[in-house]
Design brief:
Blueprint (H helix, E strand, L loop, with lengths): L3 E6 L2 E6 L6 H9 L11 H20 L5 H15 L18 H18 L12 H5 L5 H38 L4 E6 L2 E7 H26 L1 E2 L16 H13 L4 E2 L3 H6 L2 H27 L10 E2 L17 H24 L2 E2 L2 E2 L2 H25 L5 E2 L1 H9 L9 H4 L1 H14 L3 H8 L4 H7 L12
Parallel strand pairs: 5-6
Antiparallel strand pairs: 1-2, 3-4, 7-10, 8-9
Length: 467
């Protein structure tokens, strides 16, 4: 038994690996929830979130006279090590557990308790001088701690990881929109030729989409700044000091640098997670923008000989195991696949958010897992797309000029001079008889050669009419 120790919980004795800091309830969860263990174990974001919360709770309990200074000091020291990532391996539990996240909350309580006991020179598993329930979890319930960790982790990943990546890609597109402002190309609507645009205008649209998505994500964080802590089991605040929620939120804000506050209504904070649903929706909007941008890029770069071929993108790797020399738009494909995954994740978050019953929503872990997955894979994919594709985008000027010269929708410039019907007649004659627009226009007798040259100016058509 040297490799085991006996820990005790409300259901009895449990054998725990002697070298581990977790306790009985964590061990029970490991045995009872063998679901996707290789893929769905909590990562750094959630573990850090628990460390931040437990440290803040200890400081709040001390400040409010609910916990002796020495106990608070030990809990804070142990929680700080969790924040710093020293004990990540001691958090082995999977997402698919109890819907309130109770096992993960107790995992944090047990690890911090046993580490604090070590620091005090005590015996791991003795619960002395720090008890996981009575001390580390003082004034708390899993029902208000886990949703608090949900918000802490979601804010830190979205604001600290994802948004900077979005801004970096947006800046690339901003610079390219300015650089290529004079490159006139064929516009396209309904996948058909349309009036001209500049490449700078096209890219400015991508830039604007990213900026708008970033603004929406930023706005969605407002709801996530409200923390459930202080609601305890059902939202009434039972067994917690009246100021515990607000005091803890203030310590969380100080620790993270984000403006967390106590949620004004704890009943909603425990039983509904509308803020996370909205935040996931904002990620879906970003994924939709990424899908549009990536598809535009790969279509513009299609070919290289028989497609549109108006953009050149980096050649990163061979594209075929049978066709020599083939190069594919792989970064675009990866980004669009990530977008599809985010759409699916958002559905899971939305459905989970709809499943609150009475005073508790019991889909918390799966909602958090899907949100964090979306935020991380979007950050990874957008960063990869920036580095391996967007930074290297260049116009294929020859192809752009060739396509523009054959664009029959330049005829639109004739509308103010000869009318829509006559202009349509010219465009259709050119298309059906294989003529250039100029040839068809002159053959119609509706205008002279000089008038055609004056009125059909592709560059002028990219700006509003000056009157």
């Amino acid at each position: 038994m040297a490799d085991k120790r006996i820990e005790h919980d409300a259901l009895g004795d449990v054998e725990v690996p002697a070298h581990r800091l977790w306790g009985a309830q964590t061990e029970r969860s490991l045995e009872n929830f063998r679901i996707g263990r290789a893929r769905y174990v909590w990562g750094r974001d959630v573990v850090r979130g628990f460390g931040v919360l437990k440290k803040a709770c200890a400081l709040a309990n001390q400040a409010l006279g609910q916990l002796p200074e020495e106990k608070a000091r030990l809990i804070v020291a142990a929680a700080q090590e969790v924040i710093d990532g020293k004990w990540d391996d001691e958090f082995p539990l999977v997402v698919f557990q109890t819907g309130s996240g109770t096992q993960s909350n107790m995992n944090a309580n047990e690890v911090i308790s046993n580490r604090a006991i070590q620091m005090a020179g005590g015996v791991v598993g003795s619960k002395k001088p720090i008890n996981p329930n009575d001390d580390v979890n003082h004034s708390q319930s899993s029902n208000d701690t886990f949703p608090t960790v949900m918000h802490i982790a979601a804010v830190e990943v979205a604001a600290g990881r994802l948004l900077p990546v979005v801004e970096q890609l947006a800046e690339i597109f901003k610079a390219k929109s300015l650089a290529y402002g004079d490159v006139v190309m064929t516009g396209r609507t309904h996948l058909q030729d349309a009036t001209p645009v500049t490449l700078g205008q096209v890219i400015s649209g991508w830039h604007a989409q990213l900026e708008q998505a970033a603004a929406l994500i930023n706005s969605s964080l407002e709801g996530l700044y409200e923390l459930a802590i202080g609601g305890t089991a059902v939202g009434t605040g039972l067994n917690a000091h009246p100021n515990f929620g607000a005091t803890t939120a203030a310590f969380v804000a100080e620790e993270t640098g984000y403006p967390f506050v106590s949620a004004p209504n704890k009943f909603a904070a425990l039983s509904a997670h509308d803020a996370l649903v909205a935040a996931s929706g904002a990620l879906r909007v970003l994924a939709g923008a990424a899908m549009k941008i990536a598809n535009d890029v790969r279509w513009y770069a299609s070919g290289p000989r028989t497609g549109i071929g108006e953009l050149l993108i980096p050649e990163n790797e061979p594209g075929s195991s049978i066709m020599p020399g083939k190069i594919n738009p792989t970064q675009c494909e990866a980004l669009t696949m990530v977008a599809v995954q985010v759409f699916g994740n958002d559905h899971a978050v939305a459905f989970g958010g709809s499943q609150g019953n009475f005073q508790l929503n019991v889909f918390k872990p799966v909602m958090l897992s899907n949100y964090l997955d979306s935020a991380h894979i979007l950050a990874d994919a957008l960063d990869s797309f920036r580095i391996h594709c967007a930074e290297g985008i260049e116009p294929a000027l020859g192809k752009i000029e060739e396509n523009l010269a054959s664009n029959l929708m330049l005829v639109t410039a004739l509308n103010p001079h000869i009318g829509y019907s006559k202009s349509a007649e010219i465009a259709l004659k050119a298309h059906r008889e294989g003529l250039t627009l100029r040839e068809a226009a002159l053959a119609s007798g509706a205008l002279t050669e000089a008038q055609f040259d004056e009125w059909v100016d592709a560059k002028a058509m990219t700006a509003p009419l000056v009157v």
